[in-house]
Amino acid sequence: MTDITVLVADDHELVRAGIVALFESEANLRIVGEAGDGIGTLRLAEQLRPTVALLDIMLPCLSGLEVLRQIPSRAPGVRVVMLAAHDNPAHLLEATRVGALGYVLKGSRPFEITRAVREAAAGRRYLAPPLSEHRLAAYAAGVADAMPDPYETLSAREREVLHLTAAGCTSAEAARQLFISSRTVEGHRATLMHKLNLATRQEVVHYALQRGICLIDD
User: Fold this and answer.
1) Are 38 and 163 contacting, i.e. CB atoms less than 8 angstroms apart?
2) Where do the DSSP E strands lie in 100-206?
3) Where do the CATH 1.10.10.10 domains begin and end in the chain?
């Protein structure tokens, strides 16, 4: 039986350790890498090309949803299962819309997590209870007539700068993370703020909090 290789990304080391321990008891699920933030996750996905990436939806630096968006271009062929702390229908809809094959909650039973990974590896979608295709369809129908989302107009780099700005990074810190110049970061920030109609860095943070891109620390 061919191994299913898995990259685990969560900012809590204890959560990662629990998932690693869970998968060690499974015959053909093999953890090949761990990451604690979104930028590191993308780099490992590129390097390791796992069968499946199991992503916390609220990773620091770059959210799991943004990592999901970028994986098809950065690490083609890697399938994604999202791991969320809360049952948020907006996050579920966005994750499935941009390519996630699995969606499980941190409160899910252990076998639901391994099942989601196996289903994703086989190219099938799996939503762990209490999530369901019916619920997803009902929520999608409710937002079908909503106004277009300005976030969709941002480039991948602009979204990266948005996430890092919301996380409190200075231009220099963001530049080091992204391997670009501070001036380039500032240019991307100015463009994204114009597209989102934001005037200050404080408004950028507020926008990110409202959209669920970042959370206030517990």
Assistant:
1) yes
2) 102-105, 126-127
3) 150-211
- Pick 72 or 136 by higher pLDDT: 72
Question: In angstroms, rounded to a whole number, what is the distance separating the alpha carbons of residues 110 and 113?
Answer: 5
Q: Which of 177, 214, 165 is nearest to 40 (CA)?
A: 177
Instruction: For residue 50, say if its preceding peptide bond is cis, omega within 30 degrees of 0.
Output: no
| Angle 211-133-23 from CA coordinates, rounded to 5° | 80
Torsion on CA atoms 109, 55, 11, 13, rounded to nearest 10: 50
What's 4-143's CATH class? alpha beta
Q: Are 162 and 192 in contact (CB under 8 A)?
A: yes
For CATH 3.40.50.2300, list the domain ranges present in the chain.
Answer: 4-143
pLDDT digits (tens, 9 = 90+) for 117-136: 999 999 999 998 888 777 77
| CA distance between the termini of the chain | 42
Count of other CB atoms within 10 angstroms of residue 107: 12
CATH number of 150-211: 1.10.10.10
165 neighbors 158 (Cβ within 8 angstroms): no
